[in-house]
Amino acid sequence: MSSTAGLVIPCKAAVAWEAGKPLVIEKVEVAPPQAMEVRIKIKYTSLCHTDLFFWEAKGQTPLFPRIFGHEASGIVESVGEGVEHLQVGDHVLPVFTGECGDCAHCKSEESNMCNLLRINTDRGVMLSDGKTRFSIKGTPINHFLGTSTFSEYTVVHSGCLAKINRLAPLDKVCILSCGISTGLGATLNVAKPKKGSSVAVFGLGAVGLAAAEGARISGASRIIGIDRNPKRFEEAKKFGVNEFVNPKDHDKPVQEVIAEMTNGGVDRSLECTGNINAMISAFECVHDGWGVAVLVGVPNKDAVFMTKPINVLNERTLKGTFFGNYKPRTDLPSVVDMYMNKVTSFSSKIFVYFIMRSICLSWILMDKAFLLFTFQQELEVEKFITHRVPFSEINKAFDYMVKGEGLRCIISMEE
Q1: Which residues belong to the active site?
Q2: Around Cβ 248, how many Cβ atoms within 10 Å?
């Protein structure tokens, strides 16, 4: 038991009092966790576009005052009644969706959309009692996505926490709890490109680049980035994107441009913007017979997807994905390990390389195999992190995102 278990903890939190107004660092009180809840100390958090969207009140229901934040890493401070898979001191990633383990979706190998803990952007309270765990001088402060990581301490349903390797650097793996895993999983778990295949990625923001990273890890030979902002092209090269298309440069639909470039269409495509026209293009640019298009971006709820039925009859496949098809508790630890393999195994691979090189008849072939084995198989998290700010300057992170500068900004809660 921690010394603060069962007690109200006063701490600092960045509170959004009004839509679009700078967050205010306030002293809040965080109540103890109730049944099936966990209180965690947030170490690092990041800003995702979803936070920005609801902060600007472009979301479904403006709800203020509110503590935003849902990409983060932390350490378990105390657990509520009934929590068995987590204990004090565990390192965790809070996730905007969950895994209760008991519903039909959780028991299915084909779904990660938990009935109990599925994302709810309108809810500002905890499930167990319909109350908040945050307050300021008795005034309740609303939660966001069940996580509210813009606080030094927060309370989360235990099913929305992924226990991870304690050796993983929390200031880096925090970004794996939302957008990066969404794009990565969309490629690795849903599109599943084969080695040497062609992949088109629509939208080169953080999620799109994560999708490209998945294509790189899969060994795709052609990764085509499609974006209307040419400034994103140079950055995208770091993620394996080796060809670029700006739809504004062409007087024909971009799907026709891609089909011409690839002799009939790409093997796989991923749409990461939520723009309905881009979604249609992503589907129509895949090759007939075997092409698979995956929709990752979230469109306007009233948007309508339209295409000619012959595109489906000609054996093109259209799929959707939610959080990259990862089950938070079951699968996220392995995503962290995918990154940790890069950190911990390089020296061992060097050792194996020299042993194999000493007995290999063809050094050239050996060198090529080693490069593919070492640099294509692991997740590179650091290149997504473009800014860092202390918690006291959290509004700078919003400024960076509003201006479209960078990919992910890490906010250190202890600075």
Answers
A1: 48-50, 70-71, 100, 103, 106, 114, 118, 178, 408
A2: 11
